[in-house]
Amino acid sequence: MTLTGSGSAYDPPADATARRAGAPGPARTRVHGPERRLDRRVALVTGASSGIGAATARRFAMDGWQLLLSGRDRYRLERTATGTSAVVLPADLAAPDGPRLLARSALHTTGRVDVLVAGAGIRWTGPFAAMPHTDIDRVLTLDLNATLHLVREVLPTMIAAGRGRVVLLGAVAGAGQEAVHSAAKAGLAAFAGALREELRGTGVGVTYVVPGPVDTESRTHRSGLLTPGHVAATIFDAVRRHRDEAHLAPPPEGRARALKPGLYRRLRDRRG
């Protein structure tokens, strides 16, 4: 049984002096690279410390976007921001006021957010019957509740501007040993569809991206897994094309793992 950051997302602080989850404060900003220009489009990316979030940030930076990067680990955020004009906004979205404080810092820094890529999340792997109640709450808080609260904080400025896009990251439903994570992502899927309908005519769109199994633990592509770069390219393309949904088909082995996890495990065990 493991409880880990998804790599897209929610990374534990690098040192023991990090702020307690229940006592957040306004994020301190730090600008990297060239001087930021507020006439550029602005993307706020959560979970930008590593994995999908970091890859997505770099892809938007390649197209000249002004980046606001958020996560818990300032050191990792600064590595993501290297060579760009990104502004680092460390935040703990699990804290009760975390989403509001992050949104306030972001809007104070650039005055607007054109695209929110909500990539923060955590996953717990193991039998549901053995899952501690506290971890059920943690996964639901980070994978679902915190995202909804952050969207709620950023959305009014998008509606007032008559433009913007919210990007939500989903997951293949029914992944074995990840029942609560799957439930949270199913909640995000329902939220994305309902919010999209509600926002029609406002100029604000909602994109729901569903990647197959992603290798967020290494820099090399492992058999059956997508790379964070593949997901980042899909996210960027979906934003550029104003797409409502984007589904990444995994390689054959990963497709079997995602759609038929029980069968995949039996075949894997048979092969040894």
Automatic annotation (TrEMBL):
**UniProt entry keywords in alphabetical sequence:** Oxidoreductase
Please give the residue ranges the record annotates as the region Disordered: 1-33
- Which residues lie in Low complexity bias regions? 11-28
Task: Quote the InterPro entries the UniProt record gives.
Answer: NAD(P)-bd_dom_sf (IPR036291), SDR_fam (IPR002347)
The entry's family comment says: Belongs to the short-chain dehydrogenases/reductases (SDR) family.
Protein name according to UniProt: SDR family NAD(P)-dependent oxidoreductase
Tell me the organism: Streptomyces dubilierae
